[in-house]
Design a protein that fits this description.
Alpha-Beta Plaits, 2 domains, elongated, 4-stranded antiparallel sheet
Length: 253
Amino acid sequence: MSSAGTYLYGFTDRQCQAPPDLRGLAGAPIHLVPFGDLAAVVSDHPVQRLMPLRRHVEPHHAVVRHLSTHATLVPAAFGHISETEDEILAVMQGNYDDIRAELARLGHCCEMSVTLRWSVDNVFEWLVRHNRDLRTLRDRVFKNRQPSMNEKLQVGAQFEATLSRERELLTKVMLDGFAGVIGESVTVPPRDERVVCQASLLVHRQSVGAFEEAVPSVAGRFNADFTLGYGGPWPPYSFVNLRLGGARQASHN
């Protein structure tokens, strides 16, 4: 049996007004739980295992996107449910200074995503052409004979080291191009070999236009071997530094 609970979308200023027609998970109305000059954005939801299915995740993000566009909001990650609103109040009371600081830091900011990719057929061959040490090693190991497994591993290790250094250098070139437009940046390790860099950038909402205007200039720093794409604006999920107790995150397993 599940019990009545409180689902958390994030924290905002107390004067924030949630539209009466704004709905959260399971179509529940959104309301605020105030504490001092803060408020938690919540809706009623049973305390139960909450799978990250589309019908759950979409209303969470819809609420966060709407409020982030119209007010200052520190978004919570998907899946935080408390037994009662009193637990949410205890969280705000025990973490008031940290929440207040995050609201000041992230106020009126959004997140833009950028991805720099190699637009070449083979990244290894591209690196061989542009890196003399890797090219020399490849030629020595593979020319006119069958290399040993140890030699193949040596070439693979050199390729990975060269790839890592090249990504680091190219990422710096890209981020330097957005200097003066962005605040903070966060990068994640690429999962695709052709990805040079995936980054989230913290941008003031008033600077989104300037960011978009800067994209062609940043793309121009790279030749036709690369493509630069971007997305957003999004709520600044990647930049929330709060580590709060009280509201627990429902299991995804």
